Amino acid sequence: MRRILIRFDDICPTMDYIQWNRAMELCDQYGIKPLIGVIPYCQDPELMIEEEHADFWDYILELQKRGYMIAMHGYRHVYDSKMRGMVDLVNRSEFAGHQYEEQFRRIYEGKRILREKGIQTDIFFAPSHSYDKNTLKALKENGFNYISDGKSKKVIKREGILCVPCRSGGCPRMGRNGYYTAVFHTNSGKEKQYNQLVDLCKNYKDDIVCFEDFCNQEVGNFFLQSISENYLSFLSIQLENGIGILSRY
Ligand SMILES: [Zn+2]
């Protein structure tokens, strides 16, 4: 059995609406309900692509009504820590390395802004997959229950948060069995990512599920899954350093 979750990152009022709308048309055509990561208070200059759309938040609420699942994607999407997170590859983070209190504040503020716009969510994922134990603790304290992240093979519970693995930063190579999260960035991927999305929708339509159904899987043994996660993180770092061979991830 194979299950695929489609996730879109970096949804914000100044995103590239041309690419986004193309992706949404495809999702609607195939009846796909993706997980979309909305940035509560985007300050990332790289994501200032179009003029801010005044109806952005109404539009997000509309998507929610249509069955799209909303996640909070960071707070400002600004990297101001050089610490590597628990599972990420890069030395930049909005969360990892910051004191618990600061992480709590950012998560609290992000959630408050979303609530103000009428959006309730208990799902989170951090920019650049970068988070640490304090992030998970602060998420739990702020009423979050899920992150779409981690490199374990199965879902695991850590600090009271269900970590629903997202083992690659893009569209993973599909095996016959297992759970796969395919990540798309409509702001930067342009044609290559769009073509990957087309292939995914065409070839794996029946395996693509919504976040709720994707989470309906057996929770893995924490110890064994941690080993698997650490191993994959280690190999990914080697790959980043140019000496790894883990191309299939
Ligand atoms: Zn992002």
CATH superfamily: Glycoside hydrolase/deacetylase
Secondary-structure element sequence?
EHEHEHEHEEEEHEHH
CATH C-level class is Alpha Beta
The value of Rg in angstroms is 17 Å
Number of helices: 7
Beta-strand content bin: 15-25%
As a percent range, the share of helical residues equals 25-40%
N- to C-terminal distance: 19 Å
**Overall mean pLDDT:** 91
Q: How many structural domains in the coordinates? A: 1
- Which structural class should the secondary elements be placed in? alpha/beta
Report on this model:
- The protein has one domain: TIM Barrel (Alpha-Beta Barrel), CATH 3.20.20.370.
- The chain has 7 helices and 9 strands.
- Helix 1 packs parallel to helix 5.
- The protein is globular, with a radius of gyration of 17 Å.
Short recap of the structure:
The chain is an alpha/beta fold and 249 residues long.
Features:
36% helix, TIM Barrel, nine-stranded mixed β-sheet, binds zinc ion, 249 residues, disordered C terminus, alpha/beta
Give the helix/strand layout.
Blueprint: E1 2-11, H1 17-30, E2 35-38, H2 56-65, E3 69-73, H3 100-116, E4 123-125, H4 133-141, E5 146-147, E6 156-158, E7 161-163, E8 178-184, H5 190-204, E9 208-209, H6 211-215, H7 222-240
Parallel strand pairs: 1-2, 1-8, 1-9, 2-3, 3-4, 4-5, 5-7
Antiparallel strand pairs: 6-7
Helix pairs in contact: 1-5, 3-4
The chain binds zinc ion (ZN).
Zinc ion (ZN) is lined by residues 9-10, 73, 77, 127.
